[in-house]
Design brief:
- This protein is of the alpha+beta class and 692 residues long.
- Among the domains are: 218-334, no CATH class; 428-691, 3-Layer(aba) Sandwich (Rossmann fold), CATH 3.40.50.
- Helices cover 17% and strands 33% of the residues.
- The protein is built from 12 helices and 37 strands.
- It has an 8-stranded mixed beta sheet, sandwiched between helices. It has a 4-stranded antiparallel beta sheet with strand order 2-3-4-5, with no helix packed on it. The protein has a 4-stranded antiparallel beta sheet with strand order 6-7-8-9, with no helix packed on it.
- A hairpin with a 5-residue loop joins β8 (136-140) and β9.
- The longest helix has 19 residues, at 673-691.
């Protein structure tokens, strides 16, 4: 791929003809591990439990040689366990990690002989898991040798692997497992140092997964306060990001004329916190630095491109861009040779651009067999007729199915479904639309339409506002809450209001200091548009979590004529408390965030005091007339329970007591299945009462 080559991508959904699989590829179920087989699904109303279960088949990955397949699955006792299948011994399954009191979380291959993994406990609430470190464990593929490499912090007595070497302390974490490293038994970890809760530096080192022995990566003259590293496929440190107070910098380690890496670091960029001109993504085997940048776009759409070291700037125009979206993507490299094979990226949906004719043809074949789906291929020996590939195929209606392809036999075998209990034929469809807000600004809006509903049906509607707010609401995929609500007959409208990320820097900045103002108008305009199109009826409620919970409350304050009810969970109610903080309300917002980001994006506590007061729902309780359900996590550190208590007190003072629930041990999300299901049932009951 030459420096001048560039691709402007269309949106994935517009290129897809949505529909169910035309026919099933089958040539032998993985009978050696029957618990992964895909279950049949009843056609009756799907219970809430099915939408909010943990994945049954979570992560699947081929070993570097392609001879082994590692899988995490919750089948059996419900705990996420790690198993490995030998693809050349009749798909023989070997259990590697199966704990009674913990779950395998993420795993990575360390050569063909070992896997490393982290742990969590999905039976604990979100706060319990947020406040601990996941540790790091190693296990051989025969299951006979295991070792704890890094202690886990906060899971005392759980997931114990005893070895003769003392594990490292919890402040070490996995960084990388370079595909072309000399010793396949070593991976890169980082030792973190902190000042209070603020990360100060990360020191990278190799660790041998067989013994736990470590050695420092030989890097000289490292700039002070390194907080992020990028390594090439050989494990050589090439990029470091540093932070000093409110300033960050990116440095590059180049090669000398003799091919050896330099002992010096070249400054590529220096900038204020939150204002990076580009973000390092990856380094190729031949020394190309790929970055994500907003440069070269009038509206600041993020794109993927290489860095030009001669010009000391990203190559423009960007080499991979998608007008209308901040492109999220990364290069796909050949794991053995390090060459560029293509790109995997997200616009409105995930897609893949292959550069090799062999992989283009294979992707086309797969897309024909699984039409209307995102078909994510990960392979070994990719350019050979003997390729081995794992396929994750999913859509807005299908949570996901895992398949195994063996090129030497031209056979496909099912591995399992991400979620059982879901009948994709009964699921809703999801599409993105672009509408004009009242001031003419373009707003993307996701519409989830119940199965069988037609335009003009004027359905009871739920306006669901995403959290963040400086995040993207979603992509084209199966989404549990949207599908749950649609399964109950509700149209779901999800606006990507100004201030949302993912749609250009101009769209993001348009929401600065617009809490409760233009951002709220966008939410209202999305519902008005859906009504004008004949999808939404006159009965509507507004719901959301975090910022979405805040927007729910402000929607009832500012546009009471639009909504019959509201449901807000873990929502901000006192904007001044959120921005300013106080010593007696414990939260996890960093001092840097409060000093730099929040004053710019929400408002300065001193200069914008009136704006913050007017934007706070707690000061407008008297204007909220619609029935309201409030839910909070007892241990929430992002939006502490104090926000909910203040709102509840203010509403009670004006005779408008809300329905109220607090979940012990939960933080800023519902981690426990029991919590998620209980809340979903409360939500359904509230909506049924006020929308039917």
């Amino acid at each position: 791929m030459s420096p001048s080559t560039s691709f402007r991508l269309g949106t994935a959904c517009s290129l897809r003809s949505k529909g169910v699989i035309a026919h099933v590829l089958a040539s032998g179920v993985l009978s050696a591990f029957a618990l992964l087989a895909m279950p049949s699904v009843a056609t009756e109303r799907i219970p809430a439990e099915s939408f909010f279960q943990h994945p049954k088949v979570d992560q699947v990955a081929l070993s570097p040689s392609g001879n082994l397949l590692a899988v995490t699955t919750a089948s059996g006792n419900g705990r996420n366990k790690l198993i490995v299948l030998n693809l050349h011994q009749g798909l023989k399954a070997t259990p590697l990690a199966n704990f009674r009191d913990a779950d395998v979380d993420e795993f990575y291959w360390a050569g063909d002989e070992h896997l490393i993994f982290t742990v969590t406990d999905r039976d604990l609430g979100s706060m319990s898991n947020a406040s601990r470190a996941p540790g790091l464990y190693s296990v051989s593929v025969d299951g006979l040798s295991n070792l704890q490499l890094v202690r886990s912090n906060g899971l005392t007595g759980k997931a114990n692997f005893l070895g003769k070497y003392e594990p490292l302390e919890w402040n070490h974490r996995f960084l990388d497992a370079p595909s072309m490293r000399e010793n396949p038994h070593e991976v890169i970890i980082g030792r973190m140092t902190f000042a209070g809760e603020q990360l100060q530096s990360i020191l990278p080192m190799w660790i041998d997964v067989r013994s736990g022995r470590t050695r420092l990566i030989p890097v000289k003259n490292v700039p002070p306060n390194p907080i992020s590293w990028k390594f090439d496929p050989r494990g050589q440190a090439r990029v470091v990001v540093t932070q000093d107070a409110r300033r960050q910098a990116v440095y590059w380690r180049a090669k000398e004329a003799n091919g050896e890496l330099s002992d010096s670091w070249k400054l590529l960029a220096q900038y204020d916190y939150g204002e990076a001109p580009f973000v390092p993504v990856s380094v190729s085997a031949d020394g190309d630095l790929w970055v994500r940048t907003r440069q070269g776009s009038a509206q600041g759409f993020a794109a993927l491109t290489r860095f030009d070291f001669n010009a000391s700037a990203p190559i423009l125009p960007p080499q991979l861009s998608a007008p209308g979206f901040d492109l999220i993507g990364q290069p796909i490299m050949d794991s053995s040779a390090g060459g560029l094979m293509g790109f995997r990226y997200i616009t409105d949906a995930e897609d893949t651009l292959w550069l090799q004719p062999e992989m283009k043809a294979f992707q086309t074949e797969v897309d024909k067999q699984f039409p209307g789906r995102v078909n994510q291929i990960r392979c070994r020996n990719c350019l050979s007729q003997d390729r081995v590939a794992v396929l994750l195929t999913y859509s807005d209606q299908e949570p996901g199915q895992w398949w195994l392809f063996k090129g030497n036999a031209k056979t496909w075998s099912p591995i399992g479904r991400v979620h059982d209990g879901i009948d994709s034929k009964l699921m809703a469809t999801m599409d993105i639309h672009r509408i004009k807000a009242r001031d003419g600004w373009e707003i993307p809006v996701w519409l989830t339409v119940p199965h069988g509903a037609k335009k003009g049906a004027q359905l009871p509607t739920v306006v669901m506002v995403h959290g963040g707010p400086w995040s993207r609401g979603g992509t084209w995929s199966w989404r549990s809450m949207s599908q749950f609500l649609a399964s109950r007959g509700f149209l779901v409208v999800e606006p990507e209001f100004r201030g949302s990320d993912g749609y250009g820097e101009a769209h993001l900045r348009k929401g600065y200091k617009q809490w409760g103002r233009a951002m709220q108008d966008d939410v209202a305009d999305a519902l008005t548009w859906a009504r004008q199109q004949g999808w939404a009826g006159e009965k509507a409620c507004i719901i959301g979590a975090s910022y979405g919970g805040y927007s729910t409350l402000m929607g009832l304050v500012r546009h009471p004529e639009l909504y019959r009810c509201g449901v807000a969970w873990v929502g901000v109610t006192d904007v001044d408390l959120y921005v300013r903080g106080t010593w007696w309300v414990d939260d996890d917002i960093s001092s840097l965030g409060r000093a730099v980001l929040l004053p710019e994006r929400v408002g300065d506590p001193q200069r914008d005091a009136v704006l913050l007061r007017e934007a706070s729902p707690v000061n407008h309780a008297d204007k909220i007339k619609a029935p309201l359900l409030l839910a909070y996590g007892q241990e929430d550190k992002r939006v502490p329970l104090e926000h909910g208590l203040r709102m509840k007190k203010a509403l009670e003072a004006v005779g408008r007591s809300p329905d109220w629930v607090v979940y012990p041990d939960e933080g800023h999300s519902w981690r426990q299945t029991e919590t998620a299901v209980d809340f979903a049932k409360r939500l359904e009951k509230h909506l049924e009462r006020h929308l039917r």
